[in-house]
Write a structure and sequence with these properties.
This protein is α+β, with helices and mostly antiparallel strands. It has 17 helices and 37 strands. The strands form 7 sheets. Strands 1, 2, 8, 9, 10, 11, 17 and 18 form an 8-stranded mixed sheet that branches. β14 and β15 form a beta hairpin.
């Protein structure tokens, strides 16, 4: 072992597809000074035994982009290096046997339209023509794709490695990293061949990521679940004919394809609890090319269904069964991006490594080298899990995700495990009033109010709760409504340099007068959205901010990371121990006046201001703001006081018509007011792309991302539109069409219950005509009308009401 300590810009821990793809993409972006450490041989963890499918028939634009990027990268390195990647471009067929699955197929057609991925919606006769061995008795529809297929895991990994080495990157096999510590702004990695100092570290350690993460003080929410696939004896019918497309069918929770002249059947044991490996003790370091004894009992029912679907396989023997560990996360999304520890990045938690690796590598390299990705990848951000992600949650919710992997992903779908995870003080009160909850970042939030114990109906069209949400919205507009927003990111920021910190991060000015509030957008160095926060100046050197709960950890990290050495700034994250109730509607002032001695008039308590007041004897932060466009207040208080506060509001408010409202009514009221939300403020655009110029104050001041923002000619516009449909709404991510061709996509939408119209935001290329547009929903081109102003209270008079 050498005593010399080497240095490198980037150290990568793990030599599977995720680590090798990340190293290649970094080298492509000019960061060639990297060392990848693999404790055994490349691919010897999970990559080598992967079935290697890459599909285009996926449910979101982001995942379609990831898979498309992966294929493009893999083909390119094969051409560059001459190393075969074993690509079989046989296309695929995804089967629908229920009405919900047919709707899903129709929604997938929109993804294909957005990304220019060739695909067709076909019927059972066409399925039978493409695969004459597949039973189509119960097939209602299917998606046929053309440019996807399956790949050789080892071949593509070696091609990426060769391309990285050719650019100057280093790969060290049979070299285990044994620990890490922080030294002088860098990371000291201890390896079996000597110590290495690294500026950046990427954890791409697959099943070992949890253990590696502990060296850096991280809890990585990834679990290794055991997955089966089986290879049959030679299939006589496969001789002397072209290779069949890859078949996917939720009926058996998996896939069937050819493996040479044999059949390959992959099974995800839906609704059978999966076996997890090495939890909590950790994967043994000596493990290499690890496979496990098949558990035929757990997959027998699903295997029988699969063979019934393709009977030519049922009469054959099984010559090989592969049961290996595949990493999964509690929500099914991989972990790609900043970890929260300084200069430590994750590229792990990938349950579909070959399909995701190339795209994930590009995302990570863009984030590390350029500060952001070219597409919004917030759903991969490893920091999306907060303190609620305990060891129990990580394991049990991941098992739930595994079992539901091949459920139809209808809008509104939720996990059932460990619910309610966070039983905050209002939960029992709201449940007793018929609240039907949705989970967000570990919290329960009412979606609507129905009968006690009611189960939400889910699907693409209007559901049984549509009328409930309409009644809530109309009652709130008529009198007042309260929504539980205890799931909210809340920070106290204080110190003599607090104003300077917030002001240099924000495109808008931070309030300079005590009591005033502002809406502020924090930008990346390239002038795109990092986050949106409200800032209330409580007093000199003391501020309170609010933002969506899913951004609690990333926002806190972002702001804190920009505190300069020697600055006097103190930050406290109140998100877990404070709650918030939002009361909005024309009766709000009358109700609140019965509970406080504070003058609530426009003169004494103006719009966009805040005060520390007592409501029903409970000290609160009261902020006069409303995200449904009504006279209203947000009331922030410690969680322990939220129950009594809620009771006080309803005791005073019931005679005035106060009601509970859920998130569906809240969203519909937002859409009526044409308020932008997180769906519009994504990391791939900036304020000038979405019509928020009034929140950019650049004269005489500097802020992060200013020059990039002002120098870039926005290529996009955001249109507010009415969808001409009576039975369905915009969900977000659907193609916007002009003359049948895509010119953009929707970002969010919902039904405007008090105006009686379906509304949505359209993100389109700059200069797109406002007339003649349509939105493709469930493979239907539905016309839209673009409106210049909000359809409800366009002059914004109601929030400033004197009533």
């Amino acid at each position: 072992m050498s005593d010399t300590i080497r240095t490198t810009r980037v150290a990568i821990i793990g030599g599977g597809i995720m680590g090798v793809a990340a190293q290649f993409q970094l080298a492509e972006n000019g960061w060639t000074d990297s060392i990848l450490f693999e404790k055994a041989e490349l691919t010897s963890g999970s990559t080598w035994h992967a079935a290697g499918q890459i599909a285009h028939a996926v449910g979101s634009r982001l995942m379609g982009w990831i898979n498309k990027t992966s294929i493009e990268v893999y083909k390119r390195v094969e051409q560059e290096t001459g190393q075969s990647i074993g690509w079989h471009e046989v296309g695929g067929i995804r089967i629908a046997t229920t009405d919900d699955e047919v709707d899903w197929m129709k929604s997938i057609m929109g993804v294909g339209k957005l990304l220019d991925l060739p695909m067709d919606l076909i019927g059972p006769d066409e399925v039978a023509a493409l695969n004459p061995f597949y039973k189509v008795d119960d097939v209602k529809a299917a998606i046929r794709t053309y440019e996807d297929g399956h790949i050789d895991p080892s071949g593509v990994t070696m091609a990426l490695a060769a391309a990285s080495r050719a650019r100057g990157a280093v790969i060290e096999r049979n070299t285990r990293v044994t620990g890490a510590s922080r030294k002088g702004g860098m990371w000291l990695l201890r390896t079996e061949t000597g110590d290495v100092m690294a500026e950046h570290v990427i954890i791409a350690a697959g099943s070992y990521a949890n253990q590696v993460g502990e060296w850096f003080g991280l809890k990585i929410p990834s679990v290794s679940c055991l997955h089966h696939y089986l290879v049959t004896d030679t299939v006589p019918e496969f001789q002397d004919r072209p290779e069949l497309p890859v078949m996917r069918d939720n009926a058996y929770g998996g896939y069937i394809r050819q493996e040479q002249k044999s059949g390959l059947i992959g099974i995800y044991e839906g609704h059978v609890c999966p076996t997890v490996w090495a939890m909590p003790e950790g994967a043994p370091w000596a493990a290499e090319n690890e496979l496990f004894q098949p558990d035929y009992e757990s997959i027998s029912d699903f295997l029988m269904v699969a063979m019934g679907k393709m009977p030519i396989l049922a009469k054959l023997g099984i010559k090989r069964t592969v049961r290996g560990a595949i990493t999964h996360t509690p929500d099914g999304g991989m972990l790609v991006g900043p970890s929260g520890a300084p200069n430590v990045w994750l590229s792990c938690g990938s349950s579909i490594g070959l399909a995701w690796g190339g795209g994930a590598g590009k995302v990570l390299a863009d984030w590390m080298v350029h500060g952001e990705a070219e597409i919004n990848t917030r759903g991969f951000d490893p920091r999306r899990y907060g303190d609620f992600a305990s060891d129990t949650f990580i394991v049990e919710r991941t098992k739930d995700e595994f079992m539901r992997r091949h459920d139809t992903p209808c809008p509104g779908k939720q996990f059932d495990s460990l619910r309610p995870l966070n039983r905050h003080p209002l939960y029992d009160r709201l449940a007793a009033k018929g609240a039907v909850f949705g989970e967000i970042a570990g919290w329960e939030r009412p979606r609507y109010f129905g009968k006690v114990g009611e189960v939400e109906q889910i699907g693409w069209g209007h559901q049984n709760w549509h009328n409930n949400a309409m009644a809530e919205a109309k009652a709130a507009r008529r009198a007042a409504g309260v929504i539980d927003l205890c799931a909210f990111a809340q920070f106290d920021i204080s110190g003599k340099d607090a104003h300077a910190l917030l002001d240099r991060l924000s495109a808008n000015r931070v309030p300079s007068k005590d009591g005033r509030m502002s809406l502020n957008h924090l930008l990346t160095p390239k002038g795109r959205f990092e986050t949106e926060i409200t800032v209330w100046r409580i007093a000199e050197n003391r501020y309170f901010t609010g933002s969506p709960i899913a951004r609690a950890t990333p926002d806190f990290d972002w702001i804190k990371a920009h505190i300069r050495p020697g600055e006097d700034v103190k930050m406290i994250n109140r998100s877990a121990d404070w709650g918030m109730l939002a009361m909005s509607g024309p009766a709000s002032r009358r109700i609140l006046a019965e509970l406080t001695d504070v003058d609530l008039s426009n003169t004494a308590f103006p719009w966009l201001s805040g005060q520390e007041i007592t409501v029903g004897g409970i000290p609160c932060y009261a902020l006069r703001v409303s995200f449904v466009g009504e006279l209203g207040w947000e009331l922030h208080a410690p969680l322990a006081q939220i129950g009594p506060l809620y009771d006080a509001l309803f005791k005073a408010g019931t005679p005035h018509g106060l009601i509970d409202i859920g998130s569906y009514a809240f969203n519909g009221m937002r859409m009526e007011k044409a308020y932008r939300a997180s769906g519009e403020l994504t990391a791939d655009v900036g304020p000038l792309d979405v019509g928020l110029e009034r929140f950019v104050v650049s004269e005489g001041r500097e802020f992060l991302g200013r020059d990039a923002l002002l120098s870039r000619d926005p290529g996009w516009e955001l249109y507010y539109a009415e969808l001409h449909a009576d039975d369905i709404d915009i969900h977000g991510g659907e193609p916007v069409l002009l003359d049948g061709k895509p010119v953009g996509l929707t970002t969010s939408g919902g039904y405007g219950y008090t105006v009686g119209k379906s509304l949505g935001w359209l993100f389109v290329r700059k200069g797109t005509p406002r007339d003649g547009l349509s939105v493709q929903i469930l493979n239907r081109a539905i016309p839209v009308t673009v409106h210049a102003d909000a359809l409800f209270d366009p002059q914004n008079l109601r929030p400033r009401s004197e009533e």
